[in-house]
Amino acid sequence: MQKILVLGLLSLCSLEDVKYRRLTVIYILMFGIVGVILHMFAPVCSIYSILWGMLLGIVLILISIATRGSLGLGDGILLVVTGVYLGGYGNLQLFLYGLLLSALCSLGLLVLKRKKRKDEIAFVPFLLLSYFFLLFQGV
């Protein structure tokens, strides 16, 4: 159930990130509330793992504030919520695989001269792709 919810959240946010270049926080927070409720009745990981998973998103929110939006605030909020579902290790894997995929794509776009160095790309679709990878990996 929780895997389907994360897949739905990342899919919804990916479409929104590509189309509008922003994320609607209310949807993300609703998924977060549902995740907390699900963990009360059917825990998948410990509360400590959940808190460590949420910490990654909090750090990204702080980086977004410090850099005045160079990193999207919505991406940090989204990673706080995925931390509720995936725990610390799973959320870190999701983020690092997404970072790797976005770096490879950015490099390709730069080489092909489709984007310039200062252009922005949507990050959430890479999180979705990395979640598919994690699902096939068995996390």
Tell me what the structure shows:
The longest helix is centred in the middle third of the chain and has 39 residues, at about 75-110. With about 140 residues, the chain is mainly α. The two termini are about 15 Å apart. The protein is built from 5 helices and no strands. The mean pLDDT is about 90.
Topology (SSEs and partners):
Elements: H1 2-20, H2 25-41, H3 47-66, H4 73-111, H5 124-137
Let me know the largest β-sheet.
none
Unreliable residue stretches: none
Q: How many helical stretches?
A: 5
- Give the percentage of residues in beta strands: under 5%
Task: Give Rg in angstroms.
Answer: 15 Å
Span between termini: 14 Å
Number of strands: 0
Shape assignment = globular
- How would you classify the helix and strand content by structural class? mainly alpha
Mean pLDDT: 91
Helix share bin = over 70%
Q: SSE order in H/E notation?
A: HHHHH
Name the features.
139 residues, mainly alpha, 0% strand
Task: Report a brief summary of the structure.
With 139 residues, this protein is mainly α. Helix content is 78%, strand content 0%. The chain has helices spanning 2-20, 25-41, 47-66, 73-111, 124-137.
